[in-house]
Write a structure and sequence with these properties.
flat; mainly alpha
């Protein structure tokens, strides 16, 4: 399982990634670089996620192997006598394997690598979307945020001016 994911990742790294990182000539419209960068980051995230999921599956695989010899269908081909006890025993073994996994430095490294790959992909995707929005002459998220901030400041100023006018109105009527 892990070997197939590693082979696919190595194939991508050795062959296809170089193609995505080649500089492209631009005549008009969008450049190819943001799309290539987002594609590259997506593939790196997929590879990291596959490694992480594979690592999460290892305790299940190990616990099932361990249970083959403990009253399971292993050598005798018979089902266990008391399935509930068999299941409880399997859960204890599985829990032990997961506790070992979660405390390992390799798990933390793989988790950090996966989250970093996700963050890199998200940033590349956002950059691609921003460039696409700019090419379509649509406002970006930053433009809208700036507009909303300016509207808020204007509303606040208008309220303050309105309060000042309301305070000075009664004085004019009596005077």
């Amino acid at each position: 399982d892990q070997n197939i994911a590693k082979i696919c990742h190595d194939l991508y790294e050795d062959d296809f990634r170089r193609l995505l990182n080649m500089p492209h000539l631009r005549l008009t419209g969008l450049t190819q670089e943001p799309l290539n960068r987002a594609t590259d980051k997506f593939n790196q995230f997929q590879a990291a996620m596959a490694a992480f999921i594979s690592m999460l599956y290892l305790p299940v695989k190990k616990s099932l192997r361990a249970m083959e010899g403990v009253g399971g269908r292993g050598r005798q081909g018979k089902p266990p006598e008391d399935f509930k006890e068999y299941y409880k025993g399997w859960l204890k073994i599985l829990e032990g394997y997961y506790m070992t996994l979660f405390q390992s430095a390799e798990f933390v490294r793989t988790l950090v690598h996966t989250l970093t790959a996700l963050q890199d992909f998200t940033m590349a995707k956002d950059a691609l979307m921003a460039e696409a929005m700019a090419a379509l002459s649509l406002p970006s998220r930053q433009d809208l945020d700036d507009l909303y901030r300016e509207m808020y400041v204007l509303k606040k100023s208008l309220r303050e001016i309105s309060k000042k006018i309301d305070l000075t109105e009664p004085a004019r009527e009596h005077g």
